[in-house]
Each structure stands twice: as C-alpha cells, then as structure tokens.
Design goal:
heterodimer; A: 151 residues; alpha/beta; Beta Polymerase, domain 2; two-stranded parallel ribbon; B: 373 residues; alpha+beta; 2 domains; 3-stranded antiparallel beta sheet; 10 strands
C-alpha cells in the first residue's frame, strides 16, 4: 500500500481518529481513551501489521501534553505516526502500551520521568534517570534556577 | 535502597548483589541490581542515570549546527554516524541538495566508524571473558582508524566532522591512500581475530546458547542492529531505507537465526568484512565537487516534524525533531539503540549463571552515555 491507500485504510480501521497524510508518514491523532484499542488494531490487523515500536516521544505542546509513537511494520515496511494529546496538565495520564509492545516499557518510564505523563497499566512505573526531588525538566514551564536555562 | 531490594526479591533464598555502578564489565557507570538464587540469575534490574546530561533538554537552547556536537557525546563509538543522523534530519527538513562528494565521504567514514566500534567490541568482549590478548590486538588496529580520523576530521573519537549541509572541511589529501592502506592491512589481520577467539573452546562454551532471543522477542522489544540480526530480524536501515551513498553499493545484510550471544558476536565479525567491501567500492570513486552545500548562516527549520533513522554500530538511531520555525528546535528526541537494548536484559539473562550475565551484557555492546543521553 502506498501512503494514500494506507491513510484511507487507517481511517476505515479507526473512524474515531483523525488521519492526515504528513510529509513523510501517515499521521493519526487519537483521543487518550481510544489509544490502547487502536494500538491493538494497528498491530494485529494484517494490512497494517505495525509490530515494531521504533520511537516513543513525550511532548509538551504548552497547552497540552502528549505522546508521539512511531510504529513500523516489519512486514510491509511502512511507518505510521500515532499522536495522543492530553489536555490535563496537572494529572496527565494515558494507557500504557507495554502489553502491545513490551519495548515501550523503558520509553514510557523515560517519558514519565522527564515529562510527568502517567502510563496506566505500566508494570513498573518509576522514575528512570532522576530522583523524586526533581520536577519534570522537559516541560516547557520547567524553571531551572541553578543553571538558568529557561528562555 | 531497602525498598528496591524488597521489590526485586520474590523468595527467601534469594539474595541481591550490585553489579556496578563501578564494574569492569559494564564499561561505564551502569548499575545492575541482580537477584540471585545460588549462582542463577532470577532477575536483573538496571539502574541508570549516573551520567544523564539532559542532552534533549540542552538542544532546546542551542542552534542546529551546535547540536551536532552534542550527538557525538551519546554513543561515542559511533560518533560520526550520530552526527550524520542529526545532519540528515536537518537536511531532510530543509530539503537541501547535498553534493555527491559529501554522501560518499560520509558513507566511507560511517563504515570506518563501524569497523572501529566492532574492533573495540571484540577487544573488550574478549577481555570480559578472560582473554586479555584480544584487548591489545583490537586496540592496536583501532588506532589506525583513529589516525585516519585525526588526519581528516581533526578529532580522534569525538569527530564532529559533519555539519548540516555537508562536511566541516574537505578530506585530507592522504585520506584515500590512508584508507586503502588500512584495508589492505586489516584484511590480513581480521582472520587473526578469528584464530584468537572465535574457535576457542572456552569462548564457545561461554557464549553458545547463552542469552537467547527469538525473532519475535527481538521485534517486540525493538532490538535492532547486530542484536536483532543475530535473531533473524532483518532490520538493517542501510538496506531497507538507504541514506547517503548506501544505495550505490552492494553489500550483504548479515543474518543469523540462532539468537544467542555467540551469534551476536558473529554478526559483528562478519559486518567488519562487509564494511570493508563497502569502503572499497567507494574509496576510488569519490566524486569531485564542493564539500558542503551552500547553507544560510542561521538555519531555521520550517515548522513540522522530521524523523530519520540510521544504522549505527549498535542498531537503529532515530532522530526526531519538532520545529516551530525558530533557530532552536522545539523538541528533539533521540531513539538510541542502547537504551532500547537495556530493557530486555532482564528477559535475556533470567535463568543463566551470574557469569553469563557478563557475557550477555557484553554482547549487547553497551555504551552508557547512549543509554543516559
């Protein structure tokens, strides 16, 4: 499938999500509560077959937090980018995808550590690099008084 | 600490030891909390962050040409490939036309980087398993590549030779001769590596059928590079999504299906031969032309998201840049292979002996700054 067909196919697969054709990849934006079921669909459907989680990025869009997943299919070779936006900055939470792709475990711990996004259902959600006295340094409103890196 | 110990023990007869943060076999400050029953590993819990520098945060206050210099400091044994990955992402965003000469030189240097990284892997892996001679052989030959780097790039390990749009300088007049001499030399020396270690009975007993990973596990856990390919997962970015001059060369993707420590070692040994083949195809054909495309003095990426992955000596390095149109990126994420390989260490080493843990973590070829970033 080329990108246009793939975008159409994903729209049919997940009508609740917003699918756009990005410059390079098909980009899907999905609500946090639908993320897990959609991830399962993308992995298990034999036409998308996204069995490889290549990158997981925690994001801060100032008004909302979020996670970007780069999913690749080792069978078809295509990449699908899934974005989830979380409006609640105080208590951001999204479903963990560790049961879909076990490799998400450390990525999610990193996102939790640096951005404070909670992953519901994660087997071992603890801070990874920093200890609990730190804030969440990758958030845009993080103030570092010692090194004065705030813009 | 006490809480951690409680967490990792499941049985009264188990006890916990700390391997690291200072341990000769971890090659850096990696702490593995290991739960043991007798000599059998029950659970491994990695503790990282001892040298976390917050590179992803630092990038948000730097310009794109400045960030290139931070990328060397992640996986310092693949320094050139990291530079290249970042530059390729910036160039993709700018849709810049890169001169052919740059592509060729980058590819040659990437492959030299791969060889020297695998040489150091071989050297330290042998040393971890008790063969100290390997260390001297490996470092002796690696020095020859570092000399080539020094001559052309100015740096030995931390080269920073790439810049968005091309290279910092043109190659040194001796570059081609130096590389050809090295390949001639190393083609003679590489069989010695095999004679010294590969067929050794003690070595084989310590590595064969140890730390098994199936193909499905490799895909599910995101293991790439020599680790994934030893399990039969065809994941070579150079083949599947060629960048620079990889589409102009013929080479074989090394694949084994056994998925044990020995075959992770074998993949790297075979890759050194393939890297030499790639270099030989390119070294005499470096096109004339400028060594860098014309770039604006201040690089601003158009608003958007850009992802590029390359094959480092350890696996897939992904660079993800989110730009809001300024001279600094809005967010940069590095998907580093070692970080991904650390998570399944527990899965791979369960049920094996504590001494095997050294072999298994050695075969994953950890570079700690790449985990911590």
């Amino acid at each position: 499938m080329d990108k246009v067909q793939l975008a159409g196919f994903v729209t049919g697969l997940a009508p609740y999500a917003t699918v756009i054709q990005g410059k390079e990849f098909v980009e899907v934006t999905v609500a946090p509560e639908k993320l897990h079921s959609m991830a399962m669909e993308l992995k298990n459907n034999k036409d998308t077959a996204c069995d490889f989680l290549s990158c997981l990025t925690g994001m801060d869009w100032k008004t909302e937090l979020g996670v970007i997943y780069h999913l690749r299919s080792t069978i078809h070779g295509h990449t699908i980018v899934v974005k989830v936006r979380i409006a609640d900055r105080e208590n951001p939470a999204v479903d963990s995808l560790c049961d879909v792709w076990p490799g998400a475990e450390f990525h999610e711990r990193e996102a939790y550590d640096l951005l404070g996004i909670r992953f519901n259902g994660h087997p071992d959600l603890r801070r990874l690099f920093l200890d609990s006295s730190w804030g969440y340094p990758l958030r845009k409103d993080y103030k570092d008084d010692i090194n004065i890196v705030s813009k | 600490m006490e809480e951690q110990v409680k967490k990792i023990i499941s049985d009264d007869e188990e006890y916990v030891i700390n391997m690291g943060p200072q341990h000769p076999s971890t090659h850096g400050v990696l702490r593995l909390v290991v739960s043991l029953k007798g000599e059998t590993v029950k659970r491994v819990e990695p503790h990282v962050g001892y040298i976390h520098r917050g590179i992803e945060k630092m990038t948000e206050n730097l310009t794109y040409p400045q960030i290139v210099h931070l990328t060397d400091r992640m996986d310092y044994l693949s320094a050139h490939i990291n530079n290249e990955a970042f530059c390729l992402t910036v160039e993709k965003a700018l849709e810049a036309e890169i001169p052919e000469r740059v592509k060729y030189v980058r590819t040659i240097l990437s492959e030299l980087t791969r060889i020297q990284s695998h040489q150091l892997f071989w050297a330290s892996f042998g040393m971890d398993l008790g063969g100290l001679t390997c260390f001297f052989y490996g470092l002796r030959d690696r020095e020859k590549i570092l000399d080539i780097f020094e001559e052309t790039c100015g740096g030995r390990m931390i080269v920073s030779y790439n810049t968005p749009g091309g290279l910092m300088n043109d190659i040194h007049p001796n570059f081609q001769k130096g590389v050809k001499d090295f390949i001639k030399y190393f083609r003679k020396k590489l069989p010695e590596y095999d004679q010294l270690l590969t067929g050794n009975v003690i070595f084989e007993q310590r590595t064969k059928n140890v730390g098994m990973v199936t193909r499905d596990e490799a895909i599910a856990w995101g293991m790439t590079g020599p680790v994934g390919r030893a399990s039969g997962f065809s994941c070579d970015i150079r083949k599947h999504n060629p960048y620079s001059a990889y589409d102009k060369v013929n080479f074989k993707e090394i694949l084994y299906t056994e998925g044990d420590t020995y075959h992770r070692y074998k993949v790297r040994m075979d890759e050194m031969w393939e890297s030499m083949n790639i270099i030989e195809q390119l070294i005499d054909n470096i096109p004339e032309g400028p060594y860098s495309a014309k770039m604006k003095p201040v690089i601003k990426l158009p608003e958007g998201e850009y992802y590029q992955s390359v094959e480092t000596a350890r696996g897939e390095l992904g660079v993800f840049i989110v730009s809001d149109g300024n001279k600094n990126p809005y967010r940069v994420k590095f998907r580093s292979p070692n970080f991904v390989h650390l998570a399944p260490l527990d899965l791979m080493s369960r049920g094996y002996k504590i001494a095997d843990l050294v072999a298994i973590s050695g075969s994953l070829d950890f570079v700690i700054p790449d985990i911590d970033r």
